[in-house]
Amino acid sequence: MALGKGLSSLITEDTMSQMKQAYIANLPIERIVPNPYQPRAEIKPETLVELADSIREHGIIEPLIVTRKNETTYELIAGERRWRAAKLAKMATVPVVVKEASPQQMLELAIVENIQRSDLNPLEEAMAFEQLVSMFKLSHLDIAKKVGYSRPAIANKIRLLTLPTDVKKMLLNEELSEGHARAILGLTSQEAMVEAARITVRDKLSVRAVEELVRRLNQGKKDKPPRKNERLIDEYTQKLESTLQTKFGKKLSLQRSRRGGKIVIPFKTDEELNRIYSLLTD
Questions:
Q1: Predicted structure pTM score
Q2: What tens digit of pLDDT does each residue of 223-252 get?
Q3: So what family is this one in (predicted)?
């Protein structure tokens, strides 16, 4: 993957040759508006505060990339995080490189810059790649050449958009990794995906453990009987466990096998024990 190279190496030569550019050392910051094709869904406030402190001390080392929208206004192509931090730092002007760019080029440059900086969540990357497909009719191979990924990597990232909404939120909030999410996509029902994701977050499962969970869930759907001492992890068991946890707490675990099972309700204090006893005897 060519992410160590500069922007010009990741955007096609034809694209770069079509983009005239000029440098402005001190462009009034109020004349810049956000990129409507910005692929980042969220910028964490705490990272902006840290960057704003750095900008106050050292200034903006790397210019923002903008395109002229009209006689007085410039539209941001790349550098939204630096732009927001500069505003937070009360900077009156910022250095910019002005490029003539089409909407497609604006999106491409914004994606590439964020990938180079590792600023995009996998779901944000997927949404940006889907934009290139739906809005500009690019193939997965076209996108792969532009951003330095393989074609299968582009296809796998776009598949993340088929996850249930609850699972996508977990991925966006970094509760799940891309590896976890891709493993969960191996399930066939949306309900099973959501439940598997919740178990993954709750039990802090590794990607390998999630792959095994998915395998066993799919095996159960094919009516393949488990071994007598093998723990059952089917949707019914998960639903029962979830219902019990709403009453007794998230640490409760329900373990079932062909030979029976057990319910474990851990406690740390006498007060917690008395509460459990009261709930059981009510």
A1: 0.54
A2: 444 454 455 566 777 778 888 888 888 888
A3: Belongs to the ParB family.
